[in-house]
Design goal:
206 residues; alpha+beta; TATA-Binding Protein; 2 domains; six-stranded antiparallel beta sheet; five-stranded antiparallel beta sheet; 8 helices; 11 strands; globular; SMI1/KNR4 family protein
């Protein structure tokens, strides 16, 4: 079981299988996808993992100009794609304006998918949350002493960085000279352990 599967198994209760995706996962074409993406679709067939952005349905996966788009921003502002011929390819992102180029977002698909499922869990499937869009760089450094950064590069396009430790996961997104920080946990206790750092945050859900 890889890191993505471990996170999903711990964060989500078992769910009802999505018959369409289960059927699709049994087809020969599906087996030609890179293994990290196959693992994701099998997980998503059993649980609702996406509520912010859209995972392209297994039946709708199409290779165009060497790129397979698998993840789309909720308003179609951008999309993420890979070269499906590679085992663990880099992930590329591009905007929806005509002529927007593909930009490398992450060096590996496997790493990007871990970040992606954390992003979706934090925004849409978190029993306990804390949010602040005005965190200074020094405040973020103090927070990351308690909740370490994941050993993965930040997303290149948005500069979003991810972290997780001691029952809390989250991400930080640059917001002019400050940061938007979103934290989530399955239980209240992890937030109580860092309450001195976030007690004045404007949006606390624990």
């Amino acid at each position: 079981m890889n890191a993505m599967e471990v996170f999903v198994e711990r964060w989500y209760a078992p769910g009802t299988a999505d018959t369409a995706n289960v059927d699709a996962s049994e087809r020969t074409e599906f087996e030609r996808l890179p293994e990290p993406l196959r693992r994701l679709y099998r997980l998503a067939a059993k649980r609702q993992l996406f509520g912010q952005n859209r995972l392209v349905g297994a039946d709708d996966l199409v290779v165009k100009d060497g790129k397979l788009t698998f993840y789309v921003e909720n308003q179609g502002v951008c999309e993420w794609a890979i070269d499906p011929s590679e085992a663990d390819p880099p992930v590329f992102v591009r905007g929806n304006a005509f002529g927007d180029p593909w930009i490398e977002e992450a060096t590996t698909l496997s790493g990007f998918l871990i970040q992606m499922v954390i992003y979706e869990a934090v925004l849409c499937f978190a029993p306990f949350r804390a949010t602040n869009d005005g965190v200074s760089a020094s405040e973020l450094r103090k927070l990351k002493r308690k909740i370490s950064s994941l050993a993965l590069p930040a997303w290149a396009w948005s500069k979003m960085q991810f972290f997780g430790k001691n029952g809390i996961v989250g991400f930080a997104l640059p917001n002019t000279d400050l940061f938007q920080v979103e934290l989530a946990a399955r239980e209240r206790a992890p937030f109580e352990a860092i309450e001195d750092l976030i007690s004045d945050w404007p949006d606390l859900g624990f």
